[in-house]
Amino acid sequence: MFIDEAIIYVKAGDGGNGCVAFRREKYVPRGGPSGGDGGRGGDVILVSSQHYNTLLHLRFNPEHKAERGRHGEGSNRTGRDGASVEVPVPVGVLVYDADTGELLHDFTEPGQRFVVARGGRGGRGNARFATSTHQAPREHEPGQPGEERRLRLELKLLADAGLVGFPNAGKSTLISRISAARPKIADYPFTTLEPHLGVVSLDDQRSFVVADIPGLIEGAHLGHGLGTRFLRHIERTRLLLHLVDVSEASGRDPVEDFQVVLNELASFSPDLAAKPMFVVATKLDAAQDPRRLEALRKLSASRRLPFYAISSVTGQGIEELKRAAGKFLLEGRGD
Predict the structure, then answer these.
(1) Averaged in consecutive runs of 10 residues, what is the pLDDT profile of the chain (335 residues)?
(2) Which of 49, 155, 158, 213 could be cross-linked to 88 through a Cys-Cys bond (beta carbons 3.0 to 4.6 Å apart)?
(3) Do the bridges between strand 103-106 and strand 277-282 make them parallel or antiparallel, or are there none, so unpaired?
(4) Rounded distance, CA 224 to CA 89, Å?
(5) How distant, in Å, are the alpha carbons of 92, 185, 221, 243 from that of 170?
(6) What's the order of all strands across the beta sheet hosting 307-309?
(7) What single string gives the DSSP state of each residue in 209-224?
């Protein structure tokens, strides 16, 4: 199951209370105050990890509480600090305050740490209140409460290129040909129900990451089909590969398909529609009418978009598309 959003509750540890105590030793009739301070409460820390690629582990474990600090003790002994709690999250997670909507942190690299709730300070014991005129104080401080908050975690996958297009346009077949990703492939719409990532290796030991998301249909920004729920996962990409089925089997016009998907991208985010884009005509092996391919080629030329024609079944055009995307991304033109 792919979970890309979760609400969690975090509570840092409270500080330990200060102690009221006096020295009670033989031959020391007036030993004075000896109450120690309370320990500090533990923090709640979010840590980005490559071992997670979904928020499923947080959906069913929504509460994370750190240990409170121990209370102070006699003989001026300070209480032990509470243990902090580390919560692992996938790389690409954005952390929002669920109540205010404020963006708190964006995890873009593995190993990043963010203290999302700080533990309370320990209270002072009565030994801290002794003065020359107040030599037997009974005052002490309670520990301060630790921070607590509700967080909304939103996962946006980190990929260099994103595949977009109508359902059944050949996105999953393409990513299975150019990478080791193995998404479910079948001849019906919405076979892909969750995003997939694939690493595309080039000849010179370099590579880039491609994201395959469920297909878009007209009205997706209104929630039709699978809606635009997964479009957030290609917001970080530097290049879009727009796949258009030019075979007669779809029963649709390739030019209209191109326009519909472009309109859906623009409705979701103008910045997304303005990203660099390659137009990729798919299913050449099943295309019988060359006019459908030429119409899409002319549309791409009119918009000054690079155009590639491929067949994932025969492999035609695949290497050329890989090299062009790799050159665009790895030589800095996608920055």
Answers:
(1) 77 95 81 92 93 81 94 92 94 91 91 95 93 90 94 83 82 76 43 64 74 68 56 81 84 85 84 88 80 88 90 86 85 54
(2) 49
(3) unpaired
(4) 30
(5) 26, 9, 22, 7
(6) 196-201, 207-212, 161-165, 239-245, 277-282, 307-309
(7) EEEE-----TTGGGT-
CA proximity to 48, closest of 118, 116, 109, 117 = 109
- pLDDT, residue 224, reads 55
**Distance set, CA 46 to CA 111, 112, 121, 145, 151 (Å):** 10, 8, 20, 20, 11
Tell me which CATH homologous superfamily contains domain 1-155: GTP1/OBG domain (2.70.210.12)
- The token pair that represents 202 in the structure block: 């080039």
Q: What is the CA radius of gyration of the chain?
A: 30
Tokens representing 79?
């209480």
DSSP run (H or E) holding 333: none
- E strand or H helix that includes residue 58: helix 56-59
Q: Where is 327: in which H helix or E strand?
A: helix 318-330
Q: Dig out the tokens for 174 from the structure.
A: 């393409």
d(CA 193, CA 69): 46
Residue 65: its pLDDT value, please? 95
* Run of H or E residues at 281: strand 277-282
Domain at 161-330: CATH architecture: 3-Layer(aba) Sandwich (3.40)
Rounded CA separation 290/310 (Å)? 14
Cα angle 19, 20, 22 (rounded to 5 degrees) comes to 120
pLDDT at residue number 115 = 96
Identity of residue 8: I
Helix ranges (DSSP H) in 109-195? 171-178
Q: How far is CA 84 from CA 40, 53, 67, 148, 151, in A?
A: 10, 24, 7, 14, 18
Domain definitions of the chain by residue range:
1-155, 161-330
Strand, helix or coil at 181? coil
Phi-psi label, residue 32: left if phi above 0, alpha if psi -120 to 50, beta otherwise: left
Q: Are 86 and 47 in contact (CB under 8 A)?
A: yes
